[in-house]
């Protein structure tokens, strides 16, 4: 498992893009999620309670949809829509490791939300590609100095090998 880390300027670019999406589409919130469900960046117009739990559930739901796609002979689904009585959610894949979820009220235009969210997911794709490339070449990017040596030493001690 690689450690995909967003650099501070990338986090800021993602925040700006999410804020723009929330404004343009009249969303309650936009969440950039890792496929694990961890909220990487978010922007919301109203307090979003339990955002971490929501992120985990949305990611699990998207993973379930990938399995449904596989059973149906599809390579995967790029987006997902959930309709509630008062709130709706549209989730788009951003590359193969991130998700962009939007939460919005019934008054927002579904078609507009889908188009703008898809466009935002595409705009965020270069950030994902850069973070993924960095993780592939620097597996401990973003880790504190000395982390690799300390981790290696701890693993050696755990398995009784010389340190």
Provide structural commentary.
The chain is of the alpha+beta class. The protein has one domain (8-138): Dynein light chain 2a, cytoplasmic (Beta-Lactamase). 48% of the residues lie in helices and 20% in strands. The chain contains 4 helices and 5 strands. It has helices spanning 8-25, 51-71, 110-137, 147-158; strands at 29-34, 39-44, 79-83, 87-94, 98-105. Strands 2-1-5-4-3 form a 5-stranded antiparallel β-sheet, sandwiched between helices. A hairpin with a 4-residue loop joins strand 1 and strand 2 (39-44). The model has no long low-confidence stretch (mean pLDDT 87).
Quick take:
The protein has 163 residues and is α+β, with helices and mostly antiparallel strands. It has 4 helices and 5 strands.
- Ranges with pLDDT <50 over ≥5 residues? none
Residues in β-strands, percent: 15-25%
Task: Compute the number of helices.
Answer: 4
CATH third-tier fold name? Beta-Lactamase
Named at the architecture level, the CATH assignment is 2-Layer Sandwich
Q: How do the helices and strands follow one another from N- to C-terminus?
A: HEEHEEEHH
Alpha-beta classification = alpha+beta
* Share in helix: 40-55%
User: C-alpha Rg, in Å?
Assistant: 18 Å
Overall geometry: globular
N- to C-terminal distance? 24 Å
Strand order of the largest sheet: 2-1-5-4-3
CATH homologous superfamily caption: Dynein light chain 2a, cytoplasmic
In round numbers, the mean pLDDT is: 87
How many domain units? 1
The CATH class turns out to be: Alpha Beta
Sheet with most strands:
5 strands, antiparallel
Say how many strands there are.
5
């Amino acid at each position: 498992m690689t450690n995909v880390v967003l650099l501070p300027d990338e986090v800021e670019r993602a925040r700006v893009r999410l804020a723009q999406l929330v404004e343009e589409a009249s969303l309650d919130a936009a969440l950039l999620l890792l496929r694990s469900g961890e909220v990487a960046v978010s922007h919301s117009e109203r307090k979003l309670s339990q955002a971490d739990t929501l992120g985990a559930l949305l990611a699990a739901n998207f993973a379930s949809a990938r399995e449904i796609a596989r059973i149906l002979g599809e390579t995967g689904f790029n987006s997902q829509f959930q309709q509630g009585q008062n709130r709706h959610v549209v989730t788009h894949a951003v590359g193969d490791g991130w998700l962009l979820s939007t939460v919005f009220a019934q008054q927002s235009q579904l078609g507009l939300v889908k188009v703008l969210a898809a466009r935002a997911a595409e705009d965020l794709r270069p950030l994902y590609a850069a973070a993924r490339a960095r993780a592939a070449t620097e597996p401990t990017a973003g880790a504190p100095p000395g982390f690799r040596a300390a981790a290696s030493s701890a693993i050696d001690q755990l398995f009784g090998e010389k340190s």
